[in-house]
Amino acid sequence: MAQRTALIVYAHQSPGSFNAAVRDVAMEELKEQGYRVLVSDLYAMKFRADATRDDITGDLKNSELFQYGEETMHAWLKGNLSDDIVEEQKKVKEAELIIFQFPLYWFSVPAIMKGWMDRVLTQGFAFSLERMYNNGIFKDKKAMLSFTTGATESMFRPDGINGDINVTLWPLQNGTLHFCGFQVLAPQIFWSPAHCPAPVRSMMLEGWRARLKGLLAERPLTFAPCEFFDLTFQGGFLLSQKVKEERESEPYGLTTGHHLGKPLPPDNQLTAQSATESSAGECRRKD
C-alpha cells in the first residue's frame, strides 16, 4: 500500500507560538499513523502573498489587459507558472489531507495564507466551471481549518458580540475549500489560548492529539450539492424550484449560505451531519 501524504499549510511568525505547538502535535501524530507529512511554513519560506505578473514565467495570453485568473490558468496549462507555485501545487497533488494551521486575523486567514490560496489554487489546477463544489477536482481529498482565536468562544456565538462563527467560516470552508471539491472536515478551533493558563493549553493540545487519531474516519461537513442547482447561465445557477418546495416545511435553511430566509441550520460549519440526518436527506432527494 502506498504511503499516505498529509500537508500542513502553516502561518505563524514565531516557532514558540501555540500554533507551532499545534502544528507539531499534528506532525507527530500523523507520522505515527504512517503518514508522510509535508509542511509549508509560509513565513519561514517568505512565501509571496501578492498575485502578480511575476507568477507567470512565459508570455502572456493578453499583454494589453492582464487578468490574473485567466493568465495563470493558461500558464498552468503550458507549465509556465513560477517555481514557488509549482512546488506548492505538487504538494497539494500528493496530499490526501491538508490542514491549514493559523491564527484568526480579522475573521479570516493571515494575508500570507490568503496569498497561498490565491496563487496556488489556480483555475484549471484546483477548479473549473465544470468541476467545482461536490464535483470538484479535489473531491477525493480532505481539508480542514485549524486555528486559534483571540476571542472567547462565547464572543462568536449567534448572540455574541462577534456574531455566529458559522457565518465567519462559510467563505473559507465553502467558498474556498469546498469550491475546489475538498471534503471539508469540521474545524479545530482553539479558543483564546493566549488568555488560558498553561494546564488548559496542554489540555487543548491533548484534545487535538486525540482527535487526530480518528480524524480520517470523521464525516465531512454537509454542503448543498451541485445537483440542487440549475447549472446554466440561463438558469442563473439558482437552487431549483423543486428543492425550494421540498424545503418549505423544514424549520431551518439548507446551509449557512443557502438559508432561504429561514434560521441558519445550527452549527452547519462546525459539526458534520449524523448518518441518520444524512440518510433522511438522501431519502427526501429520492422521493
From TrEMBL:
GO terms for molecular function: dihydronicotinamide riboside quinone reductase activity; metal ion binding; NAD(P)H dehydrogenase (quinone) activity. InterPro entries: Flavodoxin_fold (IPR003680), Flavoprotein-like_sf (IPR029039), NAD(P)H_dehydrogenase_qn (IPR051545). Keywords: Cytoplasm, FAD, Flavoprotein, Metal-binding, Oxidoreductase, Phosphoprotein, Zinc. Its EC number is 1.10.5.1. GO terms for cellular component: cytosol. It is an enzyme of class 1 (oxidoreductase). Its cofactor is FAD; Zn(2+). Pfam families: Flavodoxin_2. Signal peptide: none annotated. The keyword Oxidoreductase applies. The keyword Mitochondrion does not apply. It is found in: Cytoplasm. Residues 6-192 form the Flavodoxin-like fold domain. Residues 248-287 are annotated as: Disordered. Residues 268-279 have a biased composition (Polar residues). It catalyses: 1-(beta-D-ribofuranosyl)-1,4-dihydronicotinamide + a quinone + H(+) = beta-nicotinamide D-riboside + a quinol. Homodimer. Belongs to the NAD(P)H dehydrogenase (quinone) family. The enzyme apparently serves as a quinone reductase in connection with conjugation reactions of hydroquinones involved in detoxification pathways as well as in biosynthetic processes such as the vitamin K-dependent gamma-carboxylation of glutamate residues in prothrombin synthesis. This is Ribosyldihydronicotinamide dehydrogenase [quinone]. It comes from Xyrichtys novacula (Pearly razorfish). The lineage of its organism: Eukaryota, Metazoa, Chordata, Craniata, Vertebrata.
